[in-house]
Target: TauD/TfdA family dioxygenase
Amino acid sequence: MNENVLATVGVEVTDIDLGTLDEDAVDHLRDLLAEHGVLVLPDQQIDDEQFLSFLRRFGELAFTEGEQPLAGYPDLNVISNVGRDTPPRSQFHVDTSYVAQPPAYTALRAVQIPEQGGETVFTNQYRAYETLPADVRDRLEGRTIHHVVTGLDLDDQAETAADHPVFRPHPRTGRIALYLSTPQRCASVSGLSADESRATVEQLLDHSTREVNCLRHRWAPGDVVMWDNGVVLHKADHSGVVGNRVMHRGMVTGYGR
Model:
């Protein structure tokens, strides 16, 4: 296993077989995720069964209710531009933040790579917190954001809202990350008016997603990319895509031991 720490966020891990990991290797990958946010795992010629087996090594699988599952694999879903008249839309976000225990990890397996474009962009939310102006940190210390669901048709029993700290300590590292999601899902900030909440979320998102704080991952055949939802925001860049872009997505709840 060889590791190459990327400049902004993430680490590329090569010479690794996702089908033969022992528990020590899995725990090391958990530590890499907690410290660096993103694992780029190239040259993984695996199918969906092997992808699921890899994900289960990290914990119990999670699925976003209201998403379309992959046929034959109810724990996975498809992210695809195939057959669409308009490109999919994506904004910087964390996955399923409107539940009390959001997924710890998300992973994508490259199924089809477009001829051009289709990168996934990640932010460094440790750095986003550490580079906040002191007055902003002081103003938001101890506050929470009320996260709500948008764009999904959920049944009456589903979770649709949860409060999470704006400054969220990571359970494995203890480091503080700036935790927020797309503005539509950040309904309010505790102790602030509606206008103040909206302006604050926009300010935090602009700060987090500055180019200097982002990694653009250009997909290659065989790529598996996994990330820690407590450490990064992510979005797909669907602008200028030429050709089919198909990814299979899986998620894991909990950070393990």
About this structure: The first helix runs from residue 23 to 36. The first strand starts at residue 2 and ends at 5. The mean pLDDT is 93.
